[in-house]
Amino acid sequence: xxxxxxxxxxxxxxxxxxxxxxxxxxxxxxxxxxxxxxxxxxxxxxxxxxxxxxxxxxxxxxxxxxxxxxxxxxxxxxxxxxxxxxxxxxxxxxxxxxxxxxxxxxxxxxxxxxxxxxxxxxxxxxxxxxxxxxxxxxxxxxxxxxxxxxxxxxxxxxxxxxxxxxxxxxxxxxxxxxxxxxxxxxxxxxxxxxxxxxxxxxxxxxxxxxxxxxxxxxxxxxxxxxxxxxxxxxxxxxxxxxxxxxxxxxxxxxxxxxxxxxxxxxxxxxxxxxxxxxxxxxxxxxxxxxxxxxxxx
Length: 297
Description:
Elements: H1 3-19, H2 23-36, E1 40-42, E2 56-58, E3 63-68, H3 77-94, E4 100-105, H4 114-126, E5 131-135, H5 137-144, H6 149-156, H7 171-180, H8 198-203, H9 208-217, H10 221-229, H11 233-250, H12 256-268, H13 273-288
Parallel strand pairs: 3-4, 4-5
Antiparallel strand pairs: 1-2, 2-3
Helix pairs in contact: 1-6, 3-4, 7-13, 9-13, 11-12, 12-13
């Protein structure tokens, strides 16, 4: 499976995740686990005994899973905590050798509420579990891409040749769209510290304009990092590789300010200020961590 096919497979998987509430999400989880963990045993409700608060487990290691997929995760955190406590109490009362416990939630790539994380860590401490935590959409995506190609297709469905698709399903297209929707960052009262990159800016022959744009872009990096944290590893790695690829290709012929603005042109996808500002946020991130432009010798 090449890069374009993986990008398309990920897009199809995200669509499944966003449409999967209740049993549909549990079916996706079980399908992935059956392929990824040969000793995984799914537990289906049976008659009036239900599943005894266990949606699946790895018997050899005592790792248990409970699945929850509300329609709107951001409005359901009190219910998540309530169900988390109730399900674990039922689990520990009916199953032996519970070493680890994971609550699998369809967060639809939005992340987990802090109260939920504190609740499950308290369960871990109170019951002296080896490990406990949440598994979210990004974790299922990472597990999905550890599978064989035919298994991935079985889960996301067959997809056409990416070369024949006219829609913008690219990694850059997705992140640029997200960044253009962000409000202006307000650093007032925050602990934000500008990176010390003046020497690098001078070394790469970037002028005051470019420096100011990068300094403005850096304000939104926390929002960018939050988005990447809730995405799978493939997305983050592919995004970095794409930015570096553009830099390496264009730096063969261009340097300094010309290189900077050429990268803005390519990354932004559209010659509009909101798209160009989003491109500069990405460039600021990878400029800071030294993936693009040269470090002073």
